[in-house]
Amino acid sequence: MATTAELFEEPFVADEYIERLVWRTPGGGSRGGPEAFDPKRLLEEFVNHIQELQIMDERIQRKVEKLEQQCQKEAKEFAKKVQELQKSNQIKEAADIIQKLHLIAQELPFDRFSEVKSKIASKYHDLECQLIQEFTSAQRRGEISRMREVAAVLLHFKGYSHCVDVYIKQCQEGAYLRSDIFEDAAILCQRVNKQVGDIFSNPETVLAKLIQNVFEIKLQSFVKDQLEECRKFDAEQYLKNLYDLYTRTTNLSSKLMEFNLGTDKQTFLSKLIKSIFISYLENYIEVETGYLKSRSAMILQRYYDSKNHQKRSIGTGGIQDLKERIRQRTNLPLGPSIDTHGETFLSQEVVVNLLQETKQAFERCHRLSDPSDLPRNAFRIFTILVEFLCIEHIDYALETGLAGIPSSDSRNANLYFLDVVQQANTIFHLFDKQFNDHLVPLISSSPKLSECLQKKKEIIEQMEMKLDTGIDRTLNCMMGQMKHILAAEQKKTDFKPEDENNVLIQYTNACVKVCAYVRKQVEKIKNSMDGKNVDTVLMELGVRFHRLIYEHLQQYSYSCMGGMLAICDVAEYRKCAKDFKIPLVLQLFDTLHALCNLLVVAPDNLKQVCSGEQLANLDKNILHSFVQLRADYRSARLARHFS
Length: 643
Prior knowledge:
GO biological process, one term: Golgi to plasma membrane transport
Order of helices and strands: HHHHHHHHHHHHHHHHHHHHHHH
Number of strands: 0
Helix content: over 70%
CATH class of the largest domain: Mainly Alpha
Protein name: Exocyst complex component 5
Structural class: mainly alpha
Number of helices: 23
CATH topology of the largest domain: Methane Monooxygenase Hydroxylase, Chain G, domain 1
Largest sheet: none
Coiled coil: 50-88
GO cellular component, one term: exocyst
Number of domains: 5
């Protein structure tokens, strides 16, 4: 076929075509050629060539038919397009004419031209409907250029706003298919923002109207469905939903701020948000505080129920205030001591739950309160925290702990108040952290800040006063316990043994038990407190401990060997005092140890010892009181040396 095609030349001449074919065929040349003339071979070549030409003819014919069909199709499409363009122009022309007629008709008197005016108005209306329908169809087909043309024509018609409404309605068809309506709305607005400028001459107005439609219809309906049901029966879920929906709505608004929506888009979007939530935000703080009170009360009641404890009534008013003043001034336990069985009635779990609920309330308050109401609303939440955490829980535990402290003369008393102190300190830190982290930022620029600081100060001072009272009474109990140990374990013969040469012990049994008890209490105090409080309480305990031992030693008469044993006891007490790590306490026991030397020193050396570094500054009566404890004091020689 390729060879056949090569034989065709322009212009085509049949004789020349056959001549070229013969010339190319072997045996088809003239008698004088290189090959002998072969008529059979030439005939065979002609027959084959005719068949090839027939096949070529059929193929060309099919191709011609296909091209003719394609040409006819394109001709029809072109004709249709021409018709549409002609029709489009006739619409534009008709719209221009009817628009002008409509304007002219407005100036004509109705009584004389009522029929004409009516016909023009009817035609105006019909054409307007046709244009809107054309716009609708073009939008469904996705023909942006046609939409732009029709919108430009409709711009001068009253129905232009209806055209915009149609566009907004159709934009939202199939737009809300995900589970997140806010994400759907953001994607819709982003898509329209890219498209609206290619269609309308006022894209910012159209986009703003779309956003308004989304907020006032779609989002408002969704918010109502999410809130109305739980609003009546489930305050917790209602507040969570309100916070979540408001947050997501404001986040959507922030995304929309990047679009051109006109001059004051911030005010525009704020008004849309307010229109959705105004009925819920008006009484938000009432719902919040009501829920927080009931929730806090439930947390506390559930805790006391778990302890099988019925809360005692802590009275208020004249009698209770009088008792409190007397107790603070005299440190006397007013009323019978109660047995708390080691229970502090303070729970870190309860505290964490109360603080968590309050933290969430502060977060919702920050988000949902009007800026002008924020400090006042935050203060209301803070007062609820104070009521349930500080008063109903901590203060109640302190009062119960105080009532549980036994009298100072009780034997084998269990001192649990230090456990109350330890837990109360931990809770104070948590309370103070929430105050600084979550309340202060909400009221920092408001007069409510000083009010809250003052309220916190009063609460802490009241509780510290009760803690101080409890610690003081606990120290008294410790002293009472040590007195019991000394009274039970210390024998007169310890310091005046019958056989001076047969004393085998290094220190007395009373000393061993007292030191063991003191070390245990020191460790407990260190674990119960922190910072300077530890040193303050240990100093007070150390001073009282020293006074107790000092007065205890004054009760006995000492032989020489008994004095040595007393010195050994005081040395052990001094070793115990070192655990306090309080210089004053150690100094007191160093001095006491030096005083005990007066019990054993030779009479001739008494004046020298008394003038030594540790005793020189002491009152002479104190020195004399210790010398008088010597069994040999009444001897003329000793009295003469010390006089």
